[in-house]
Write the structure tokens for this entry.
Amino acid sequence: MNEPTAPPGVPQITPPTQAELNKLSVMERQELLERRREFNAAERERSRQRFHQRLNSWVLLIGVVLTVGGFYGTLVTVRTAQEDLRTSRASQITDQYGKTLEALGSEDASVRMGGLFLLNRLMTDSPRDRDDLDAVLATYLRQHLKRQPIDKTKPLQQMPDLLPDTQAALAVLRKRPGPTPGSPPMDLRDIVAQKCDLSGADLSNAILDGADLAACKLTRANLSGASLDKTWLSYADLSGANLSGCEVRLAKTFDTNFSNTNLSGADLRGADFNNLDFSKANLRKAKLNEAILFATDLRGADLTDADLAGADLKNADLRGVVGVTEEHVRAVAKTNADTLFGD
């Protein structure tokens, strides 16, 4: 029978020989046997504890493995579901895109109206296709808002009203999200959209060359960087609009409202703004040299660093202008006794 060994760190005691045991008294032998039983019991308890510790460690490890496996399985399931959802959504958008194009090409105006509704929804649901959707909308507007012979000198009341489907298309244009950085400019050249409501529309960098926007409501519209070569803006309301950096000098602006308009850095050279309202307009760094501003309302306008060389400001109202002095204006521009200055 193997003798039990002492725990680690405890000095090893050599077992007594039989001769040594025979020399012990009965009481000593009993005490020795009792100590041996206690030692054996303690050793068995230590073995049992070690077994339970190993068992608990294995149970814990198995639990961790199962938890990680369950999490990974859930993650794979979620990713698969997301991919399926994206694929399904892309398929739905493609289907809607095809239906939209088909509807917009219909001869039936009511069907085209439905196509415009789908187009408006796609512009919200599919931002990544925004450039293509803008091109579709611009093509539709150019096809259905073609120029017709018209006398621009007629009163506003005689201008023809827009058809319902073209009004709906212009509503989509007004509500559409603005272009993203790097997007191609929206080509709206030569469209005829008299008396339309484009208030708040984002037409930044749009090509509006030759477009007829006479009597349009363009309040708070963003036209910054737009191309306005020979654009008709007569009778239009551009109050609060942003035309910063535009070549407004090339536009037709009879009786146009420019009050509170941002025209900072705009090119207005030689343009005819006779008797127009530019009150509180932002004309910082605007090019106004040789512009005709006869009897124009410039009250409260910001003319800081504006180029006024040769501008015709006879009978103009410059009361409350900022960024420029009366002496400077009279020195570089054309004024008369009826040119008003002061607070």
